[in-house]
What does this fold into?
Amino acid sequence: MNANILSSKTNQEILGFLCEHPNDSFYSSQIAQKTGLSIGGVNQALRILKKNNLLKADIKGRMTFYQADTSSPIIRQF
It folds into this structure.
């Protein structure tokens, strides 16, 4: 995992939000709305976080729902 992932304020805010709701999953525009971040920034961060195994993604139809991957040691510490 790239150490710079957690240095991004956007990544931190998204991880913080998802860790506050560990049993829920959200699609990108919900995350943007609830965190006050731009949809473009959220989409970019979600791709990076997913690529580094910090998030789970569940595709339902045309929508992708994201959830913190609580099996990740980094997420358990977050």
Remarks:
- Residues 31 and 58 are 15 Å apart (CA to CA).
- The first strand starts at residue 26 and ends at 27.
